[in-house]
Amino acid sequence: MQKRASPWERVKSTPHLWRRRYLTINGERREKLYARFTCRLKQKRRCEPLGGDLAAAKERLAQILAANYSAKDFDEANEPTKQGITFREWAADYFAHKIDPTRKAGGIDREKRSYKPLEAFFGDLLLTDIKRSVIMQYRNKRLQEAIKRRGKVVMVDGRPRTPTFLTVNRELALLRSLLNLAEEDEVIEAAPRFTSKNGKNALIKSESDHSRKRVCCADEFRALCENMPRAAVRVIAALYYTAMRVNEVINLPWSYVDEKAEFIRLPAQYVKEGKPRNVPITPEPSAILNELRQEQKKVATIGGRVFTRNGRPMKSIPTAFERARKTVGITDLRLHDFRHSAITRWALMGIPQAVIMAAAGHHSIPQNLAYTNLQPDDVKDAFKLATQVEQANTVETKSNVSY
Fold first, then answer.
1. Distance (Å, rounded) from C-alpha 331 to C-alpha 52?
2. Could you give phi then psi for residue 62, rounded to 5 degrees?
3. Check: CATH 1.10.443.10 for 218-372?
4. Per-residue pLDDT tens for 276-293?
5. What are the extents of the domains in the chain?
């Protein structure tokens, strides 16, 4: 069986110029000339038609090769022209020019963290193409997406950890804000609704039913401390006794520590609430601060941070915390729950609510109550104590009565 001849033939003395012979439907023999070369920009083979005239084909070939040498994108003319602005472009303009300069850095940083997953999903979409149905796809995908750190899936109690309801809710709140701003600036005609016409099926759900109620009891705290390195123990102890947030403890400089007045003085720009906060230094945090000072006298510190390990600032403690939590067998406990634990413990100690709010940085009673997570045993024990006091007072009163 004879091998079929190729219709392609290289034109002699002219590199990259090829001739293709073919038969028309009427049986006539025809030929066309083509440029066959490798695109420098995209590193793929291309075949560009040059017509049937040899002289004109050579002239066109020279132009194509010169353009290829300059790394021309030969697909550019075939790509559809964008109409409008992409979500990534609009967000970049927002962060560069539309953020209120009086806002504190912490709030802006949180917005930037919320933007990262939004960019991955919506980045290349035109603002006009972001519809309610697309936002619903994003929400469903994010709630099931496994969290990764350093390229590895984070496992919690044998299952991949997924973003919390509150995390996704706040990402959608930022998305809504950006789209509403685009509508106000007349970049788009109308922003998509985040609620349906009947007011149900809201994309941003109420957070009232999803607030954390978990607290770390004394036995759990003791068990964690016994299974963590000393540098990490000092951090979670600070969380447990001061109600400070994780980043507030990790990044705390010595300049904020006023040991003479027995306060950790946090300036407005350092805290989430944007108002100065004075955290009392009780005996437990005082002992930790003294230990750190003595240790840092022996090892030169870097950056003036309070919480260090061998003189170097602590960066984070999730790894040590998660390892200890699994070793002890404690479930559903997060680092932020230590803030709930401290505020709840202060309430059980009988500290006035106004004092607790000042130390925790809360500016409303509902906000403070959301962090006061009394357990059933706490209520029972409080009534037992109150009953004992009442009975003692009654007996004493009767013994002093004269008949």
1. 76
2. -60, -40
3. yes
4. 999 999 999 999 999 999
5. 8-78, 87-210, 218-372
